[in-house]
Amino acid sequence: MKKIKALLHSQAKQAIPILAKLFGANLLDKQATLAKLKAYQIFIKNGEEIIIPPAGVTSTEAPENFNNSQPVTTSTVAVYNLHGTNKVKIFPYGGIKFNRDVLDMDFGSALFIKTLLKADKRVPLRCNVCIVLWSHEWGNGYYDYTYFIFAKLLRIKAIMSEADFKQAKIIYPLVNTAFEKELMSYAGVNAEQLVDSRKYKVTADSYYLANNDSWYFHNKHDLSVLKDKLASVETPVVTGERIYIQRKGRRKLTNEVDVINLLKEYGFTIIEDSPRTVAEQIAIYNTAKVIIGPHGASYTNIINCKAGSILIELFPDNYYPDYFRYLATVGSLKYFAIFQQNIQESHYRNLNEDMTIDPEKIKNLLDQIIP
C-alpha cells in the first residue's frame, strides 16, 4: 500500500507543472529559479564540500554512512532584490510569481495549484519595502523555523540598509508560536512588521527574497550568522554539564526509566520535555558538556554548544537522518550515535517511530568518554 501511495504521489507531482501551464504559469525548479533571478542577485555564498567524519558508534551495528566519512556539499545561498516592477505576486502560501514564472525559493512550488481552487479574498496591503521570507505552509517546527526561516531573515537583514529593514514588511504564513515571536525580537523585528501572507495581498516598490537549498547541509555563512546572533542573547543561569534530553511525543524511548536510572549514576541532569523560551534553551546547551537523548528538534540548539562538547544521538532502527551530525561537525562537537538493533533502511515515513535502546550500549560509551 505504501508503494502504491508513493507511485500515485509521484504521478500527481509530475502532473502539477502541466496543470499550471493550463492556467498561464510556469513552475520553475530551483536551477531555473536562480537563473531567472541572476540579474537581481545582490549577495551570494557558494556551497562547499565538507567531509563529515565517521560517527562514534558503540558497535558494528550501525548504518554504513555513519561508520564512514561522508563528503557533502553545503547549500549555495543568495539574496535578491526585485524593484521597480509591478509583475510580482505573493501567494497565500508565501510563494512568488514573477511575470509568468512561479519561483522555487525553498523546497518546491506545488502549493501554487491550491491558489487556483479558490478566489483570492485577502486584504490588499501596499508597502515600500517587503521581505518575502518563506513559501510553505509548514515551518512551525523549531528546527525548520530556526534554520530555514530565521537564518534566512538574518542573511537578508545583513545585506539591507538599516532604514530599509526597519520599514520593511516581512511576509510569509506566520506560524504563531512563542519561539517565532522571541526569535523575531532578537532580529530587531517588531510585531507591526510581520504580515501573514494568508490574510494580506501585499504589493511593494521593492521586494527582498532569498533561497533555501539543501535540506540537511546548511551554508556555513548562515550558520555563523545564526550562531553569532544567538550568542548575543541574554540568558538565564543554568546548571548541568551532563544532560539527558527527554522526549514525550514521537521518537520517545520505550525503556526510558531504565536509561534514566543509568544516566543518573553518571551524574546526568534530566531535561524534561516541557515548553521553554529560546533563551532558556540557549543557556542549557551552552552550559552542557555531554548531551544525550533521542533524535529530535531540541538538537536545533547544538549550534549554541561550545566546541569540544559531546553529542550522543539515539536512533530507532529505521529513521536516522544525519543533519545534527553535520551541525556537530561544523560546530567542532564530538558526535556519537547509538542505534536500536536490526538496522533497516532509513525513511522519512518512519519519523514517528519510538525506540528501545539497550542501556548497556550507553554504559559502554559513557565509560569510554567520561573519566
Low-confidence stretches: 1-11
SSE succession: HEHEEEHEEEEEHEHHEHEEHEHEHEEHEH
Find the count of extended strands (DSSP E, 2+ residues). 18
Radius of gyration: 22 Å
Instruction: Give the fraction of residues assigned to helices.
Output: 25-40%
Report strand order across the widest sheet. 2-6-13-10-11-12
Count of DSSP H/I helices: 12
Seen as an oligomer or otherwise, the chain set is single chain
* Terminal-residue CA separation: 50 Å
Would you write up a description of this structure?
- With 371 residues, the protein is of the alpha/beta class.
- The protein has two domains: 188 residues, no CATH class; 128 residues, Rossmann fold.
- The chain is 33% helix and 23% strand.
- The chain is built from twelve helices and 18 strands.
- The protein has a six-stranded mixed sheet.
- Strand 7 and strand 8 form a beta hairpin.
- Helix 5 runs parallel beside helix 7 and helix 5 packs across helix 8.
- The longest helix has 21 residues.
- The radius of gyration is 22 Å and the shape is globular.
- The N terminus is likely disordered.
